[in-house]
Amino acid sequence: xxxxxxxxxxxxxxxxxxxxxxxxxxxxxxxxxxxxxxxxxxxxxxxxxxxxxxxxxxxxxxxxxxxxxxxxxxxxxxxxxxxxxxxxxxxxxxxxxxxxxxxxxxxxxxxxxxxxxxxxxxxxxxxxxxxxxxxxxxxxxxxxxxxxxxxxxxxxxxxxxxxxxxxxxxxxxxxxxxxxxxxxxxxxxxxxxxxxxxxxxxxxxxxxxxxxxxxxxxxxxxxxxxxxxxxxxxxxxxxxxxxxxxxxxxxxxxxxxxxxxxxxxxxxxxxxxxxxxxxxxxxxxxxxxxxxxxxxxxxxxxxxxxxxxxxxxxxxxxxxxxxxxxxxxxxxxxxxxxxxxxxxxxxxxxxxxxxxxxxxxxxxxxxxxxxxxxxxxxxxxxxxxxxxxxxxxxxxxxxxxxxxxxxxxxxxxxxxxxxxxxxxxxxxxxxxxxxxxxxxxxxxxxxxxxxxxxxxxxxxxxxxxxxxxxxxxxxxxxxxxxxxxxxxxxxx
Length: 492
Prior knowledge:
This protein is an alpha/beta fold. It has four domains: 4-132, Rossmann fold; 150-249, 2-Layer Sandwich (Beta-Lactamase); 255-337, Orthogonal Bundle (Helix Hairpins); 346-488, Heat Shock Protein 90 (2-Layer Sandwich), CATH 3.30.565. Helix content is 48%, strand content 22%. It is built from 14 helices and 17 strands. The longest helix has 54 residues, at 251-304.
């Protein structure tokens, strides 16, 4: 038989006490019988009794006093008053003392058992409810501790987009305290104010989203990249009441991904450049070799026929080809060294670099009759001084070489500020460059005029020097309207 809750029986009549105890014990109850009120209270201090049967008339204290004492010890206990001296007054007094029910003697056993059963069930129901509430509180405390200690931001938002919960990590990521945001719309936290609507619509449609990337704004306005997982919250009837969102700051991860993407693109560009470089070098270096090989054959024929004048001419062609190859090799070697053999960078006014470049090209400037105009108040730059002077010498020389029939040749060396960027330029009023050639002029050994001086490596070297300094270089020009070579450098 299933064991039932303990019952305290307070009855001074020994026979009645024994009878009640036997009947209740037969029904599976654990019975604790006592004959006086004081005994009952002493036992109740040691043990908790869900149900009590109390005789109204006891030899030491009244049943009402026992009832009040038991209720003080256990307010949830159910007490059944039994008496042979029933009256309206005693019944009212018992009920006022919070008795569960009132049974007259002689006791109807069925009535008594039914009352005890109801009292036991009522008490058990209270116990179950209390236990459930305690478990709920424990669960809530447990969840609150998890939420509070979570390294991820946990935010609860209702169906109207109002913030209802905001943990410590959310404070750390967003810069807002919980009391500053709870009760406020979550729209204010997103870089795109329409983003909350998209999140809510998707969560309602799918029930849950994972690793959703978006941008939120800190209290100080700084953007933060986050990865969010969100789930729909429902009440006990299955009606949506909001969303719980778990977010992680991935700003550094995003920056690393962008840096990786940038490096991959740079590597791809370098590989493409290397392929082009390999092709150009093999093609352009092969040309003087073929020329030399051809004239060696001609030289043999002329020697066999004793054509001394032709031999001298053959040797000149061979010498010219050898010199051309030497220049090509020198320029190729110079290009390969840029970025490896580097002079220590220094802070230097850009105007000083322009002045040094002018000094190195003074004779060429004088003989060409070109007018040089130099801006004032140049900013200082953090560069390899020798390399940047080399860049300016090359650009000034290029401008003089491509003036064409310009009657008043002019070169401007200056700078401008584009947003947060300082752009330096060397600009001329020469023949200009067609837009289709703007990218090609920086390729190794590329020459606009194949009959012109030099190897065509100059702008490739210039481009490499600028890029090693973390800058970029480009052409602004139209055919027949002069040319500006623009570039950026680290400004101090």
